[in-house]
Amino acid sequence: MLFDLDDTLVPQATWLAGCLEAVVAEAQTQEPGLDAQAFRRALAAEAAAGSARGGLIDRALAAVGSVQPVGPLVAAFRAYRAPELAPFPGVEDLLDHLAGRWALALVTDGDPGIQRAKLAASGLGRWFEVVVLADELGRARRKPHPEPYRRALAQLGLLPGEAVFVGDRPETDLLGAAALGLATVRVTQGEHQGTPDVVRPDATVRAVAEVGEVLARWSTGDRPGSAAARPSEVGVG
Fold first, then answer.
1. Buried b or exposed e, range 125-156, using 16+ CB within 10 angstroms
2. The whole model's pTM is what?
3. 211: which residues sit within 8 A by CB, 6+ positions away?
4. β-bridge mates for residue 183, sequence order
5. How far is it, in rounded angstroms, from Cα 166 to Cα 174?
6. Contact yes or no for 44/221 (Cβ under 8 A)
7. Residue 202: CB partners within 8 Å, gap ≥ 6?
8. Among positive and negative, which fits the CA dihedral 135, 138, 140, 142?
9. Does residue 237 register a pLDDT over 80?
């Protein structure tokens, strides 16, 4: 069973807020006369328009009329480390329930150092037999590219039809998994909850804690024809 990380298991907004505060602090160091409140608002507005877009810091600087170099601010963003990052409610109970029944893998995009730091701060790493950081394969192989999913499946010893992918982003997480033939569960929480489906997921839940209920339904045959719905029959349950 494969999971996404950001806005599936942990709230991206919590981590991002810490990163942006680190950027504001560095910007004030570089430019003591900077209007920190205005810069903070500009960063928040850019993040609200899509945190995965490139150039967020550049545009926020331009919005407040600052011409300071962006390099140190990007470095501060990447260097941010939170002492802890609380997972969404029910995540730890779900992973506890799944451990031993399903082989578990994490497949996530983003700067590898940041993603590893999130995993460490959340304490979720102990549940995953396999962790695939797509950016370590090259940014061009981020989801929905098939390679991150294939790497995880190969390390788990599974075929696509024997696996389930749980994620929140329709145009990356779910699209890539469905294209390979994995069963898909969409979690409608976090930044992308209002994004329309690109492919129809096999199930949709409001919170990742509800995934266990989906698997229970599938185990009784509510999703006909799917090997992923019957883990005990394919050796992963």
1. eebbebbbbbbeeeeebbbbbebbbebbbeeb
2. 0.88
3. 94, 166, 185, 187, 205
4. 164
5. 8
6. no
7. 183, 184, 185, 223, 226
8. negative
9. no
